[in-house]
Amino acid sequence: MYKKNFSTKNNYFSENEYIKMFWVGLMDGDGSIQVNHWRKQSLQFRLVIKLSNSISNYNMLIKIAKVIGGSVKIIGKGKDVIWVVNKKETIQEIIKIFDIYPLLTSRKICQLAFLKECILINSVDWYLLNRNNKYNNQQSIISSDMFGFKKGIITLPNYFKEWFSGFVEAEGCFSIRKKNNHSFSIGQNYDIYLIHIIREYIGATNIIRNFYLNFYSLKIYKKETLKIIINHFNNYPLLGEKAESFHKWKQKF
């Protein structure tokens, strides 16, 4: 498990701050920022992360709730566990974290922008007129070159490593194979720019695959690159069920 404080060559931060950055990555991967209405009379707001119910996922969400706020519930006849916030005032405080550590996926960026507009305008009629336009800016976000990849001058956010661990907790996969051809893979709908930047970060040379529609994935077999990945998670630990998967996986090397 991780220590009370984290220290790297460039960063020194508390456990709570690590959890905030990790949480942003987890939100980008498995979270949802929702606006709904109650009988067309009032707006309802919700932040939620839904995971398969396991002791490690439950404990991770409890840690997050203690730092971020919100509550943890077991749903779906015990199959799933969720972290959820329903209170508008609490949500307004929590989303200030995104001002410090911005979301990086196009859909979550759109969801957050829509939620902020709905809170500001506070009109059910406006919400009903605009809810289908929530993702209108998604393509411009995808094309914006936010990391400078197209210009050849790559700049990662200063919280990227912590974010990456949270994102892998949601979207990564550590595969153990019978012939010792073990692998790490990660994928994302729409946001090929994220897969590009993850590939750059871990020093991979693999081709990014586009097997269907707008889903892009990266699968790593090369042992030198897998060692870089192991080193990353030794320094920026996973906190839930993926931590168990990772520890079993790295023992094979």
Provide the descriptors you would attach to this structure in a database record.
single chain; four-stranded antiparallel sheet; 23% strand; 11 helices; alpha+beta; Endonuclease I-creI; 10 strands; 253 residues; 45% helix
Topology:
Layout: E1 5-7, E2 12-14, H1 15-30, E3 31-38, E4 42-52, H2 55-68, E5 71-75, E6 80-85, H3 88-94, H4 97-100, H5 106-121, H6 124-130, H7 138-142, H8 160-171, E7 172-175, E8 183-189, H9 192-202, E9 209-212, E10 215-220, H10 223-235, H11 241-250
Antiparallel strand pairs: 1-2, 3-4, 4-6, 5-6, 7-8, 8-10, 9-10
Characterization of this structure:
- The protein folds into two domains: 9-129, Homing endonucleases (Endonuclease I-creI), CATH 3.10.28.10; 160-250, Endonuclease I-creI.
- The chain has helices spanning 15-30, 55-68, 88-94, 97-100, 106-121, 124-130, 138-142, 160-171, 192-202, 223-235, 241-250, and strands at 5-7, 12-14, 31-38, 42-52, 71-75, 80-85, 172-175, 183-189, 209-212, 215-220.
- It is built from eleven helices and ten strands.
- The protein is globular.
- Helix 1 packs across helix 2 and helix 1 (15-30) crosses helix 8.
- 45% of the residues lie in helices and 23% in strands.
- By secondary structure, the chain is α+β, with helices and mostly antiparallel strands.
The CATH architecture of the largest domain can be given as Roll
H and E order: EEHEEHEEHHHHHHEEHEEHH
Alpha carbon gyration radius: 19 Å
The CATH first-level class of the largest domain comes to: Alpha Beta
Strand content: 15-25%
Task: Give the helix proportion (percent range).
Answer: 40-55%
What do we call the CATH topology of the largest domain? Answer: Endonuclease I-creI
